[in-house]
User: Fold this.
Amino acid sequence: MISSLPRRKIITIGPMPAEKGAYALARYSRSPETIEESIRWVHTHSSEKFWEQYYFKYGHASIADLGHIMVCFENISELAAIELEDEPLWDGQAKSTRYQDFSNLGYFIPDELAGSPLERIYRETVGSLLETYTAQHHRLKGHLAEQHPRPQGMNPEEYHRAINARAFDLSRYLLPLAVPTNIGQVVNVRTLEKQIGRLLSSSTPELIDIGRELVDSCSVAPLNLWTELVGGGPAAEPVAPTLARHARKSEYLARTYTDLGQWAAERIRLDSIDSAPPVDLIAPHPLLEEVVTTLLYRVTQAPYRQILKVVQGWSEKEQHEVVEIALRRRGEKDDLLREFRSGYPLIFDLLMDVGAFRDLHRHRRCQQIRQSWTVSLGYEIPEPLRLFGLESDYDQAMEGAGRASRALGPSPAADYLVPFGYRVRCLFKMDFAQADYICRLRSGVKGHFSYRRIAWAMKEALALQYPFLASKIVAVPPHVEDPLTR
Assistant:
């Protein structure tokens, strides 16, 4: 009989190839071995056979949650960065448009424009936006310094950074989605597989190329610089070679949104798009109506409330037809479309500038359903541009971007010309705890004025339906400012 427990140990594990690390932990959970014994065993046995059998054949998906991979994407477009980050279980950071100068980084040019007359329009438009961005930023720093002199006792370097950042808060409205950025992400193998499948299923060539390159990077040795810097070590192994062999395009993802878009174009006849407030909290309604409305919201440009009114006028059979279209191409291993993640008590339909969306997109404890990029919803004009007499140049550049995007027509290339200042519509579905978190965090004085307004309006919308609960949310109204605090 064992009279006492063995001595307790807490052990941290050094970096391992993701597939081998997950294999070791999976074996550890299924045997009496210590973690050291498990790692030694895995070191001398192939992990590929294990992955082939248990993950890809038997579908033991939780195994893939145990292996984590650090991946960096350099010189990808902002448009691609948004799609890469569109994973609920994603962890990472991207280069910030609020703190860094994007004027001299170049810009992405879609291959399909090469040599065509539209390439000249594209280049001229992006060039105009970036020239205006640079000029506006320089002028804004001067105006902001006059408006907010350095307080006595504030470090000059810290003051310069604060003014520079506030100027970027305004000038970034001119940045198009074509500008490049860098992303560093840490994901588990299961999330990476879904990310790759989603990229390969895209209709945007850049995203398909990134998906293919991501597959390739998983099958070759990674950058092992840290090991080299601290004194060498064995050569690094590929992080996820089995995953690389199995990554596939999903026909379900690739074709279903097109199916839904075509169906919506034929069946939803709207004389005009209703105007909607920047923040519209939708009252609870039946789950079937929510699922159908969300599926159609994704492939239209109308507000949620307007589509819901149409759906509520249909028979149950007509509502079922939309669901059937959204399911008919689903394969055995395909997850349901994100639009099916319904049933959250709070549904916010948000109309905001692309820059604000770029920041709020980081909130992953809610379901986000974004409509396609467009210039048809118009653009925001930050009040300081009017105040400082910079509105005319801004309007000229933004209007030019709108004309050029429309000239490129309904194509992925047109999306790259959409600047951060244009509006986009997106559903945010969440519980009360997430609403409290967004309102509290994003309304603070350190935040960008655009998403601060959204966060405060969310609290006000909650107060109309749930006054007691809203009163417990500690948020800062937009008129409270501290421009030198970052």
Observations:
- Residues 117-147 form the longest helix (31 residues).
- The mean pLDDT is 91.
- DSSP finds 21 helices and seven strands in the chain.
- Residues 201 and 250 are 6 Å apart (CA to CA).
